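Weekly puzzle thread! Below is a chain. First person to post its structure in token form gets bragging rights.
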Amino acid sequence: MELTQHEQKILDIINSNPEILDDPVQRSIIAQRHGLTEKTLRNRIAEFKKYGLIHSNNQVIPTNGDIDIVQIFQLIWQKKLTVISYSFVFGMLAIIYLLVKTPLFTSTITMYPAGDLSQTKSVMGTNLSTIAESFGLAGLSSAPNYNIPDIVSSARLKNVIALNKWSIENRKSDKTLISYWEMDQESFSVLGFIKSFFPKGYQSASKEDKYLDRAIKELEDRIFVSETGSGLITIDVDMEEPKLAADIANFISEFVTKFVSKVQKANAFKNRVFIENQLTSSSEILNKSEENLVKFKNKNPINLDTPEIAMTRTRLHREIEENQTVYLTLRQQFEIARIDEQQEEILINILDEAIPAVRVSKPKKIIILLLAGFLGIAISIPVILYKDYPTI
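Winning reply:
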């Protein structure tokens, strides 16, 4: 609706002084202040209500489509009990969640790689792959790059943790995590009851496999690994009991250390076998070249050399020197590989071992209660604006 200048002026007066809608005394005072009569102001108010420019609850509707921030804050303040009610409800839900949620304790270990795990170094500081490549021996590859976070996040480790028997407080015998979490005990659940009405499809997995799969998925939410720019790796384990969390965290460090050491030894064995095979082949080639030279000398005494025979003699000597160089290099690397295979190399250093936590780490009560309060406020404000904010 397009208003005249006079009508817009009166609407602005009403917008700035909403109390005049219900209070005749204030209406008379405001009208006199702006050079109007109380009757004129009252009639205009009646017209605006008729045209729908004033809400049924006496709130002025913005005619220019703009949002009045001041009016929004005033409305929220007027409806502050609604905001408090929503925050209270969400706060109570958060308290109920904290009461039923099982408290968890966190144990932490820190470790870092000892040197560069992506390369196999010999005791003389020579990179085997570089030497092999210089002689065209592409099969002599370096050790694989061991990414510790990938090992910690692997299903293989979680499988071992789930099936391992752990010492549980106030329990007479050690239990697997499947038994500890009672995943092997069938119990009634509403979700399971609903699922029973739907086709299950073809399932070949045994109950034990299903229990193990559930335990692995649970561990995915209990084990966290992170790596800093300096290479420090932090592993956090959340469990219901402090000692159990510390035991699992320390078990992870032992598993990672043994796994990397095992794979490293296997790689060193493969390198040694490869070099040994190359050494055997090189020895045969060297013997063959020496035999060729001896046969050539028997047929061609040096005092009867012609330029062509002398050239051939030089080539045979050069071939022996080249084969001898390759043989000596491989011989040296073979001895180094034997040493590397036998030595105990520290590839991972444990900086901090896990100890039982002294306080509950999850759920974080203060943060949850604050989030619940903010959520109540965030939901109540749109509800208030939808129900009570004036719109055309």
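Puzzle host: Confirmed. Bonus trivia for everyone else. Strands lie at 105-113, 223-227, 233-239, 348-352.
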